[in-house]
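Morning!

As promised:
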Amino acid sequence: MRFKVKCGLEIHTQLKTRLKLFSNSLNKSQVLSNKPNTNVSFFDAGLPGTQPVLNYEPVLLALKAAKALKSTVSPISTFDRKHYFYGDQPLGYQITQHYQPIAKGGYLILSSRFDQISQNKTIGIEQIQLEQDTGKTLYKDLTGLAHVDLNRANVPLIELVTKPDFSNPEEIIAFLKQYQYIVKFSDISSGDLETGAIRADVNISIEGGERVEIKNLPTTSAIMHATKYEIKRQISQFEKTGKHITETETRGWNGKQTYKLRDKENAVDYRYMPDPELPPLVLDVDEIMPQVEIEKPRDVRLEELMAEPYGLKLRDAITLLYNPEFHSYYMELFQILTTKKIVKRDLISNWICHEQVGALKKLGRPQDEYLPARVMSELIFSVDKGSIGSNNAKLLLMHLLDNPQDQVLPIAKLIKQFDLGKTTDDELDYAKICENVLSQNEAVIKEIRRTNSQGKLNFLVGQCMRISRGKADANDFRKRLLEMITT
Amino acid sequence: MFLRSIRRLSGIGKPFKTIQEVEEYLARPNWATAELLVKAGDDGLSREKLLNLQQLSGLNAESNEETEATLLKSIQRQLGFIRNIEDLALPVEGSTVDTRLIPKPKALVFADLVKHAKSDPEKGEVFDSWNPTGLAVDSDDGYYVVRDSLDKNEEKAV
């Protein structure tokens, strides 16, 4: 039997603001080394007599998110109290926007081209609301005592609620990645799941059953695995008992399975009430929204990188898109090399996105310690004009990364100094090397003639390169070998 | 309820002759807030619901039957009051805005949001002017200390 699965997301996103939501204390939620309780105002600590006053920077960031998600901004939104008791929430309630959120509706399109899903899908947005974060409670042992840090209390969040439009975990991950792009590049949030800047809860139900909410999923991997597990669990329960889940419940994830935390609270349990201390937020939406600036949509930027003049492959375009510094480095090199009229354009992306990244990895160096653009461009240019073979260029790249003092020397001088230059036909007898290699590999020749195996041909090219000590051009050997084998 | 009261006030009766008569009449309210605490047809509030509410509010749920009965009765009356209020016919538009104690402010434009984006001097708070754990009865290494057990770690709402 095939079950129709429905999933929805609730995403809490910490906003990148200078101050907290309703006080003058600093929002240092992304500074992990921050000492506990050092960014706490009277209001954050819930001292009697204090009152909230809304800061406008979080409003601007919420409006950016609304614009990027094509949500309709409300001319009037209001703040409400959601009551629940917890040590790290000293007010006894969270200020949120339950009745009239700042924005409603909207959508995000997942693309089969860029999101590794089978077909395009539109995910509807229910609403976006502004609200406070809570403090943090740390349980260190089993003594029954807990440590509370209020630095995070009253940090501004937006809660985004999607419609239950997801059919599988892959779509959820695709949505989250695109959402992360939006909040990161429109400067709304740092957008990291791992640091808690984004926290996602997943709602899952199979057709005919009530929904189950899984809370506190800290990584995309946890979201993927917990969702898969929960879908299987609900289907398996129905198959065994013939009964659907009849009551909404909240579950946790322990890395292997979901487990029941509690029955899900409803609106009555939280005793929502309008916050009498906060006036409605009234916005001249028509005047404001055209002036709210956001980054171009992800798909537009990817298309730009994959089109002329860059012509990048999707994988490389994605790498650049999510690494702004690397993106700038690439663009600087691209500018230098295209001015030099480099012939093989693919060399640029290959040497920047693959060879150099791979070399840094081999050397165990940070991924952002790349060669200065001038040096790297000279090296790529030397490969393009044939002054150095690609194998020897890789050796030189490793040397330069490992010996920064040599980065000031011209590449041509280093090629000469280390005798890495490509030899010409006059200096190296290509034909003789090929004949030698072929004479010792008759079985391989037969196999190539029979199956046209590229792998076997590469083996022979490798043998030739070994004899020439990497100073020859592998493509020259390939052409000659192929000619000799097929004639 | 309010509307009914207004109807009572505006009913046709003996005309007032002096302003004193009017004032005397208004000084004798013919309805009481106590009426709002009674609502017919209330569905019963279960003991389980009471325990749940106590837990959500961080209140001690270890009470005897007599206390529970008193609490149940009290909550029942409060619920009745809310239902009476809910029954009032209010204009749909703007009714939720009117529940705030503060009047509806004028609409903000983009310049307002940008101008006050970074700080609001009207708050009058001085950053770093106090020691947040200085007034706490119990603190440890800069943290507030709360008597709380590990199992609640998994019951957080946000």
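DSSP finds 15 helices and 17 strands in chain A.

Hope this helps with the figure draft.
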